[in-house]
Amino acid sequence: MRFLLVAICLFFGVSAAAAQTLKSGDSLSISVLQDPKLDRTVTVDPSGEIAFPLAGHIPARGKTPKQLEDILKKKLEVNYKDQNLEITVAVIAAPKDIPEEDLKPKIFITGEVVRPGSYVVRQPTTLMQAIALAGGIGPFAAKKKIQVRRRAPGGDETIFMFNYSAYEAGLDLEGNIKLRAGDVILVPERGLFD
Question: What pLDDT sits at residue 40?
Fold first, then answer.
């Protein structure tokens, strides 16, 4: 009788987990039996996607772990034609288990700025405001070659160029674009003849 009760509890527990839909902030453990090098923990990002090697960016929000397993299997079987892939997706941490700071929309600033790093954006922020958040341009910055790199949900990356010197002179006001969560601002170091 005890065995039957345990079996019923396990069945309903597994059924509830399988029916759970994924949401932004969920941490997932993904394992591929045929290629353990692909095993990893990923987080569903604010746009509802995960990134996985050989599969790219995959929409995950609103899907069950089983549906995500099926999508991953379809995307990966191109690279494993002679094998019947066994993929497991398990939710290991829901958003309530993840620090709130990790779920906030962020921009990333790297290169020749005073304080490179990630910055939470709570309101519309322009490129110049983001540079100011990072303490301003460093002394060795290539002011005419600043880039904003933006990745679209499909995986394509767009690069916006910004000329800080022209903006200072009042010439390139359109270059001061509004940023989106996930944007990466790259302030390169100037070369010897810049």
Answer: 86
